[in-house]
Structures are given as C-alpha cells and as structure tokens.
Amino acid sequence: MTALESSYWPADETYPVLDLTAGDLLRQCVADSGDVTALVEVALPGSPALTGASSIERRWTYRELLDDAVRCAGYLASRFRPGERIVVWAPNVPEWVIAQYGAALAGLVLVTANPAMRAEELRYVLEQSQCAALLYVSTFRGSDMAAIAEAAVDPLERKPVLIGMDDWADAVRTWPADVDLPSVAAGDAAQIQYTSGTTGRPKGALLHHRGLVTNAQYIGLRSGAVRGGDVVSAMPLFHTAGCGMTILGTAHLRGTVHLLQMFEPGLMLDVIERAPRPLVYGVPTMFIAMLDHPTIDRRDLSRCIVAVSGGSAVPAPVARRIEDRFGVVLSTVYGQTELSPIVTQTGPDDSVEDRIHTAGRPLWNVEVKIADPASGQALDVGGQGEICARGYQRMLGYYNMPERTAETIDADGWVHTGDLGTMDARGYLTVTGRLKDMIIRGGENIYPREIEELLFAHPAIAQVSVVGVPDERWGETVAAVVQLRGGAAVTAAELHAYCREHLAPHKTPTAWYVTDAYPMTGSGKLQKFRLTELIEEGGYRPLG
Q: How many CA atoms lie within 13 A of 5 on its CB side?
C-alpha cells in the first residue's frame, strides 16, 4: 500500500463485517460441521467436578453443543425477558460456554464475573449491571462460592435469582428443544465485560454480537490459524480473550477448543503435545511459565502451528523464546475490551523484526490513529501519542455510565484507549506505554516500556515492571520491581550499571525491589498502581 502521510490508518474493507449473532455462528457450524468435536474439557487429574458432572473429561460436537445451547435458551427465555442481564460467575467449565450460547439465542445479555471475586466485588457487579440472575459454581479452589454469592446478594434491594451450576447442565437438557426463541439482531447487546480495574472501580463495557463475532473471525484470519485445527487455551472465559477470541474464534475455524479449567503450565504442555495441530493462546506470563517449566526441554512441541499472545506487552526476549522453543510464528495482538477486543495483530507474513518489535497492523474495518492527547489530531508518522480507534467493533458504551462513556468515546466516534504508541509509514503499531503510567521526573517524561524492554534482556531477570514513586525533589523517581530467574543472583548496583550503559541518567531506576509475584487483574494484566502503593507501604524487599 501507499506509505502513510500521517499516523492514521484508514479502514481496510477487504473482508466484510459479519451481520451475525453468536447463535447464528453456532448454527452455521452445525450446518456444515455438526459432527466435528467443538469442545473438550481439560482439568488436572483428580480435580473435583465443579458442576456435579460424572467426569471432568467431557466433550461436545457442534451438534451436541447447539442442542444444549437451544435447550438452555428455552430454559432462560421461560424465566427472563430479552435484554435482561445474567451474571455468570464460574471458572472455565463447559457449562459456561453453554450459557454463553444459550443467552445469545435467548436475547439475554451475558455479564461476566471473575471467579476470584469476593462478596463486595461481586455485589458491585450484580448491582451495577442490574442483573436478573446469578449463575455460579458452588465451590472453586477452596472458596465457598455459594456462601459468597449469598453474602453478595443479601444486602441488595433488587435481588437477582440465584442459579447454582450443580447438575445444571443435566437439568437444562430436560428442557424441550423445539421452543420458540426471540429474534436477536447482530447489533443487539451480547455481553457486559467489566474492565480490569487497573485504576478505580470497573466499568461495564456493553458489547454487541456483530463486534464480538466479526473480531473473532479476523483474529484467526490474521494469525494464520488452520481450519479444523485445535485451539489450546486457559484464557479465562470471563474475558473477551476467552469467550470471544477462543470460543467464537474456534467456531469460525470449525475447530476444537481444548478448554483448561485453569492455567497450569505442565497440564497445558501436556495438551499441546497431544493435540494434532494446536494453536496456543496465552498471555505473556503463561508462556513464560511454560518456557520455565522443568520439563520443557523434554517436550515435543513440533506440531504447534501458531502461538497468539497479548493482554499485556510481549517483551522482545520472551517473543523470541516463544518462537524458538514452540517452533511457531508468534502472532501478537493489541486491543482493549471496549473494542471487542483486538485492534492490531501480527501475522505469518510479517518479518521477524515486525513480529518481535511491533503489535502489527490494524485488522480489517477499523480506523486507527496516533493522536495528540491535547488536540486529538493525528500526529506525523513516528510521533508518539494516544492510540485511538473506531469502527464496527466499538462498544455500545459503558453500561449505565454515560459520563464515563463520553470520556472514552469522543464526538467523532473515536475510542480513546489511554495507551501510548507510534505508527510507522506502513501502518505498524508500536505500543510504548500508558498515558497514566508515564513518569514525570523533574519535568522529563519517562516511558517505563523502554526501560522494561532493556531489563528483560538481562539474563538474571525473568520479569520486570518499572513505575514512578513520589519524590519531594523530583516529583517522581524511577523504581524497578524485578522477578529473578531461578537460581539467578544479581545486585542493584549491577543492574544500575547495566542500565547506565544504555540509558540516560534520569531514566535509570534509582530504587530496586524484588518480588515473587506481581499484583494482577483477573485477565492477567499488571496493576501498576498497586505496585506503587506496595512500594510506598514497604511491601517489597529492596534488592541488595
């Protein structure tokens, strides 16, 4: 294509926007691939059946999945009106997927909730979404979720119906399969996905069928995934990467989802080895855990086709390790829940340098610009500014939050992501940080991503995050919280010297801390504001 004259990418209309609902997509799968295995349940051997099932190794063909989903839709439609909200609060169990398709066929809005939530957090979601029902598992990872559900609902003036998942799928199967279901349009609301809450209270992004279904297809097209292949994923279903990219994306491929109940690196490697042609989904921390697993050198990963990663920036050294050890082309995605969710992506036709160092080019039918935060105008090619996008995939808005919606979507329809980035003349996007993560030291703007990329290349460091901490003299100073590789030893002085070889003095961290784990959201995103708080509270051990 012609070189861009500014940091603005016009919508590429090569592929059409799909006028489909999630239910339409599942019906299409049955029409041409009904006997193909659609869903395989994966859990650690000996794990309890969280939904009262007789096995933790169940599987569904597309025809069986549609049959369960239609019966589920009839059950739901008999109790709730189209447009009402139903919260699903459970880990990655097959019943979650049945509820997802069932709600879509019944014209209900699925509200997703992290199973790690406590009563107060869950209560906020129930109340803010004005939900009609809460569908939940009774227990998970030692947590009495039934008791938490009761505690969350008890103070509410408008109490949702509580529906336990114990034997729920079997009960739904007794519902007639020939019931009349409401008409559902592609532009209708499909889900409320609560943002990760890296700052402040979560906001419920109201997403429509057209955006979720179309975006899921585009991700597969760009990644180079094969039709009829296997997808191995532990991505949480309560996030768009799970129920959208994984579930809907695999349906477009007429493939088989191997759905891990929860992420465990050894188990995920087991499934990858068994699958005939696996595409592997994971956030960077998942891939790092697999790469550092003690059995990794004995694993046969030769059948892998594609690895897809995102959610947070994939450091260049990690990207190289993924490609080298898994023997795949890494497809890196960048997006945001409010955009259903993926905006840009790398693919197999991209060069190694572009795959490793950029977030790829925009997917089809989306406009992207790098905007001056003050004026909103597109910057010159290569200029650093806020990443903005608009197109078919834009959310309908934040549920019951018109003021917050107006802060995110401007009058011209652009979604302001709050992310910083640059765009080159070919349209390749490089994410450079968050507007709110920018450190201002003595009037100098410092972007943590640059420092983190450098430190990731140090052989002693497994993971790193750089944040600003308040300082009376400078306003903010630079601090680094590192996680060391097993058996590695390094001092703060050595890391300081290493940074000074490559960075200006004001960018070099002046405080160094070590940790075994970072504060993360349920979707695997780092909560940088918590890092700063923990540093100020003395929650991290200084690196000697």
A: 0
